[in-house]
Design goal:
The structure is a homodimer of 363-residue chains. Chain A has helices spanning 15-31, 46-54, 65-71, 88-100, 110-123, 146-156, 178-200, 238-243, 273-276, 332-336; strands spanning 10-14, 35-36, 60-62, 78-81, 102-107, 127-132, 161-167, 207-210, 227-228, 253-263, 266-269, 290-292, 299-303, 308-311, 324-329, 341-346, 349-355. Chain A has 363 residues and is of the alpha/beta class.
Chain lengths: 363, 363
């Protein structure tokens, strides 16, 4: 089957670009002695997680317990739930996971940890725990230093949990411009001083887990870091290009759409916010929703649910209904989650069909 | 089962509010002699479409052919695909639909219509067609007046298609402020003159189909209009409230989330852009992603994929991990499409579980 034979909209993955992205990160991690534990939220496809494991990943990272269960067919030696697991149903799934593989959870309070510890004890399983440090995003995590030490001391008192180290997510650093460099400097200091403080109490973290795709190639400059959890790097997207962490030609994922209407000033394609998501660019005020491959003059500036509005901006427009475009999305992780399947392509041929198994697993 | 027993995030539908919304629109349509053909993109649940039909809807509207096929268990007497159907796979599904019920498609070019007509002839089915007029959104549709007449004349030449009338979508009118009133005035004029022009050529549209939820209650003021296709009205959302087309207490859908982390200035909940979508408000510069029921002081101002950031803004914060909040989303149509199921609730009890059958049907 060729790309022309696919119905649209469709997520296409250039398998050669994907393999190059995977190999580069695997090689970087090996070179710097970092454990690579990719976040599967980007693809949600067990076969691709399997490929990451084959290339040396130590395990996988997931946000939700339902997502992790849907990924178990990749047979991961370790699963990190990088999310505070709160509520009886979720804790029951965490225990179920712990019966099937080695499971660790990152969280930021003893209140959240205590019921997990109780469930682990009751089930006779051991669950690893990482103390989540706020690296500056002000999302989850306690501040570096004393608050992190207090959290670790609290976690270590809970039978059923095994304290394994520290986790953080530097999602506030979107690129390595001057502001980003300053933020990175603060993060290095926070890591250094916090691990030092733990050491002064005789506490040595087995795992210091961090990293994001924008900061992937800076991971070796973060003191004490020994595990990275990038997600987007497998495909990359416009946000990754803007962050400086990849080149345009490293974007493996495009969305194939069909022109359904034309007018002198615009074309309309059969993908909108239910196909691309309505995510704007993360670090640009430019209000566009994708880059049309091969047509840099086209401006994808607006979406309704099932319509993409592409302005011609005066460019000659030889488009007709039925023409197809490939669009690099702003943020592939949210786009992929809207699709039932994705297609691996190479030189115009469709070489793989993958079901997005963990799509919509929100609980 | 009670709401407390549901895992989160979960879409809750207050069935009494939903029934009131459905009854009000049905009564309005009846009173003004308008055919009501609800767009099912909002809920994507056959049982709810069935309820709309029981209350007098003449059929259903869908955007995509896969979506329509997934809805067929509601047994609709008519299906309108309010979208240009382009491409062999989609046309084959349109023909399949036409074998099962009365099918009409709205489109804006003879180029798009011709292969549909050919497929209908080859299959021995008849497919209705509406000429799409651009009401001002500059999405699909030809301009009112002569271009619309030309389109109708072209469509009438195609064997296999039955020309039934005109369709338009006034999505550019978000509220009835001064600008909205002026746009509504232009739309009235466009309808009046276009239908007059058709009449001068002996062409009488059986169907003049328009309407959106923000303009629902103005439908009777649009000349010649005899069919309306609102979608959101079944649930309503923050956008509908802002448009003036409903009151806050008419919002039937909320998303139940759990607090997973707390800090002095914020709480983090277990729903982000993969739960709510990243849609901002349609007609406000306010960058918030939902209204927290019962806590008007809380500001839901930021999302990552699985995290909702809620600022306390100095308000006292008696929240702990495990607490639950119900949040009215900005745009329920895109939020619903992210969920596998929705729950009907009444007085704290869960009274229905619905699978979102047509979720993710993008083709």
């Amino acid at each position: 089957m060729r790309i022309e034979d696919l119905d649209t909209p469709a997520v296409l993955i250039d398998v050669d670009v994907m393999e190059r992205n995977l190999a580069r990160a695997a090689s970087y991690a090996r070179q710097h002695g970092l454990r690579l534990r990719p976040h599967i939220k980007t693809h949600k496809i067990p076969a691709l997680a399997r490929r990451q494991l084959e290339l040396g990943a130590c395990g996988i990272t997931c946000a939700k317990t339902t997502e992790a269960l849907a990924m178990m067919s990749c047979d991961p030696p370790e699963v990190l739930i990088a999310y505070p697991v709160v509520g009886a149903a979720k804790i029951a799934r965490l225990v179920e996971l712990a019966r099937r593989t080695e499971v660790t959870v990152s969280l930021d309070s003893v209140d959240v940890a205590a019921p997990i510890a109780a469930a682990a004890r009751a089930a006779g399983v051991e669950i690893g725990v990482l103390a989540e440090m706020d690296a500056g995003l002000r999302r989850v995590g306690v501040p570096p230093g004393e608050p992190l030490l207090d959290l670790v001391l609290g976690l270590r008192k809970l039978d059923g949990l095994r304290w394994r180290g520290i986790a953080f997510y530097p999602g506030h650093i979107r690129s390595l411009d001057e502001a980003g460099q300053a933020q990175l400097g603060s993060l290095r200091e926070a890591l250094w001083s916090t691990v030092g403080l733990l050491a002064s109490r005789g506490l040595k973290p087995e795992i210091v887990s961090g990293g994001s795709t924008p900061l992937l190639w800076e991971s070796h400059t973060l003191p004490e870091l020994n595990e990275i959890r990038p997600g987007t790097y497998i495909f990359n997207d416009r946000n990754t290009v803007l962050s400086g962490a990849c080149r345009r030609e490293d974007c493996a994922a495009t969305i194939l759409v069909t022109v359904v209407s034309t007018a002198p000033d615009r074309i309309i394609v059969d993908g909108g916010s239910k196909t691309f998501s309505s995510d704007r660019l993360a670090s640009s005020s430019e209000a566009t929703f994708g880059e049309v491959l091969g047509h840099p003059q086209l401006r994808f500036h607006k979406m309704n649910e099932e319509h993409g509005f592409i302005a011609l901006d005066g460019a000659p427009a030889p488009f007709r209904p039925g023409d197809r475009l490939r669009i690099v999305p702003n943020h592939i992780c949210v786009a992929m989650n809207l699709h039932e399947r994705a297609w691996g392509v190479r030189n115009g041929e469709v070489v793989a069909e993958w079901r997005v198994e963990a799509r919509g697993r929100l609980q």
